[in-house]
Amino acid sequence: MMHTAVGWHVELEFQEDDTHTKAAALVRLPDGSEVRAHGHASRHHTDPNQPRVGEEIAGARALNELAMQLLTKAHGEIDSVSGRTSHPIHV
C-alpha cells in the first residue's frame, strides 16, 4: 500500500551577543498547528568567541524541547482517541 509522504518545515532563528545565544524553533504541522520551543547557550568568559558553537548548542536545546513537546502532543492524541491513559512515550 502506498502512502502520501508528508513534510514538515522546521525553522530556527538565533539572537546573539558576545556571551549569549538564544534559539527559537518552530514547526508547522500538516493539521495547521504550530509547536514552538526555545533554547539558549552561554559562553564562559575564558572560552574563545565562536558564534557557530553557541548556535549549535542553543539550536540543539531548542530542537530537544521541540521534540519533547511533540511527544507530549502525540501522547495526548493517543489518549484522546483510545479513551484511556496510555503508557508514557520514552526517548
Describe this entry's structure for a reader.
Helix content is 35%, strand content 29%. The mean pLDDT is 91. The protein contains 1 helix and 3 strands. It has 91 residues and is of the alpha+beta class.
For the structure shown, list the relevant keywords:
91 residues, alpha+beta, three-stranded antiparallel beta sheet, elongated
Mean pLDDT value: 91
Task: Please mark out the parts with pLDDT under 50 across 5 or more consecutive residues, or reply none.
Answer: none
Q: Supply Rg.
A: 17 Å
- Distance linking N and C termini: 29 Å
Strand order of the largest sheet: 1-2-3
Outline the biggest β-sheet.
3 strands, antiparallel
Give the fraction of residues assigned to helices: 25-40%
The DSSP helix count reads 1
The shape is elongated
* DSSP, total strands: 3
* Proportion of strand residues: 25-35%
Helix-strand pattern: EEEH
Structural class by sheet pairing and helices = alpha+beta
